[in-house]
Amino acid sequence: MSQPSPGEQVDAATLQSFADAWNRHDIDALMSFMTDDCVFQAAAGPSACGARHEGREAVRAAFAQAWVNFPDAQWRNGRHFVAGERGVSEWTFTGTRADGTRIEADGCDLFQFRDGLIAVKNAFRKDRPPLQGA
Predict the structure, then answer these.
(1) Which of 16, 22, 27, 57 has the most CB atoms lying inside 10 A of its own CB?
(2) Alpha carbon distance 68, 89 (integer Å)
(3) CB of 115 within 8 A of CB of 9?
(4) d(C-alpha 113, C-alpha 86), whole Å
(5) CA–CA separation, 43 vs 66, rounded Å?
(6) What is the pLDDT of residues 89-101, one digit of tens each?
């Protein structure tokens, strides 16, 4: 699928394209899916909702930080569901930190859509101890 156009209906193929951009580490493509006033709630952070990032620049920086923390980050085994203005992506996250420890854990994103774009991405990931490097 090509980049989304405002006003188009978001579907499972849209969410697969969004996931593909994550796995390519393509920040420009990722941001093309987001509204101008987008919100990203990370899986971890100081609040009950994780770390909350609001607006394009804050969300862009938070998304890019995932690849700083895990240069080989991948979200595999994606399954995507859309119902109106809400959606879900399930995935298995894998990544290696600079110290060689690996993360492999299942998770999901809950989405809210507006005008064919992602307004809110709320991430959840199983809390699992890091694995020693391969």
Answers:
(1) 22
(2) 23
(3) no
(4) 6
(5) 11
(6) 999 999 998 888 9
Top-tier CATH class for 12-125 = alpha beta
Tokens of 81: 């569901």
Give the torsion sign (CA, 12, 24, 121, 104).
Answer: positive
Q: What is the pTM of this model?
A: 0.89
| Residue closest to 79 by CA, chosen among 58, 123, 109, 34 | 109
